[in-house]
Amino acid sequence: MRIAFFVNSIEGEATYYTTTSLALAALSRGHEVCYVTPGDFVLRPDDSLLIRATTLNGSKPKKPETLLSSLKEASVTTMDIREVQVLFLRNDPSEDADRRSWAVYAGTNFGRLAAARGVIVVNDPDGLALAQNKLYFQGFPEVVRPTTMISRSIEEIRSFIEDHPDGVILKPLQGSGGKNVFKIQSKDEANLNQIFEAASGAGYLIAQTYLPDAVGGDIRLFVMNGRPLERDGIHAAFRRVPAKGDVRSNLHASGTAEPATVTPEILAIADKLRPKLIEDGMFLVGLDIVGDRILEANVFTPGGLPEIEAAHGIDFGEDIIAALEEKVRLQQLYQGALHNRTLATL
């Protein structure tokens, strides 16, 4: 099969990205791989949908560095979207929100058109359209979420902080990578106005109760087809530990990765999220968990597969590609009768 990975940009890809691991796993299993970016779709007057795909031209790199070098030298091939069996949406919309607002919805919009033409698109583009910001998080059961308020009013936020003396985490509603995430201890904090101004520049703010267990970091758990991803009793999970004096555990914000113990309590949290993830066609999701609460559900670009492989010696990318192979088999078996959202989590 041919898999197209939809990313923000070719030059922005990195050796430590999970997308790179997935592409290598696909190549090792004998599949063709190409990359597509927000500006690479063409809808012609005859209603045919084409992609200008960066294609490896038969090369089969086995290392991340070689793959990225090959991508930079690869040619761009224009092909009908029907020549692709799977379109894997792996972009981060928040990266494009400021400088390329036109690119934010390209994946979901053209993903819908691709699915209508028989391409398996994961995660399901209609589901992803519901998750363009952290409001999506509010759709999960209250029992697994920290107490949360969303507002642009500093008076409302001050009141929320006053009601939660253990502290509050303040962050943008639209954002990722730990950017503009702050811990506020008191409504009288001297620089609260400056923090509010910095964090609210992108729009609404989320205020959440601070979870004391977060001092030790959070656990990123991969969920595939609605269930925790595991092989031979080892779960695809790792602990993200924040740098000293930092509340953010994001690896892009100086956090570090350590092996994680996945407890029955953590699995119970994932179990409570399963119905919505399946309903929304979320094939691959990264859950960030602290104690008995989920901090975030990353449905666009969950990362960490290289860190998990380093810790456990298991390349879970192979399991993910194998699951896509099964979806292609089922699609062929049912001759296109299954809806994309159904196929996404089968």
Structure in a nutshell:
The protein has 346 residues and is of the alpha+beta class.
Question: Could you give the order of the helices and strands?
Answer: EHEEEHEEHHEHEHEEHEEEEEEEHEEHHH
Mean pLDDT reading? 91
CATH first level of the largest domain: Alpha Beta
Distance between the termini: 18 Å
The total of beta strands comes to: 19
The CATH architecture of the largest domain comes to 3-Layer(aba) Sandwich
Structural class label: alpha+beta
Main beta sheet = 7 strands, mixed
Q: Helix fraction? A: 25-40%
CATH topology descriptor of the largest domain: Rossmann fold
Radius of gyration: 20 Å
The shape is: globular
How many helical elements? 11
Number of spatially distinct domains: 3
Instruction: Report the sheet-strand fraction.
Output: 15-25%
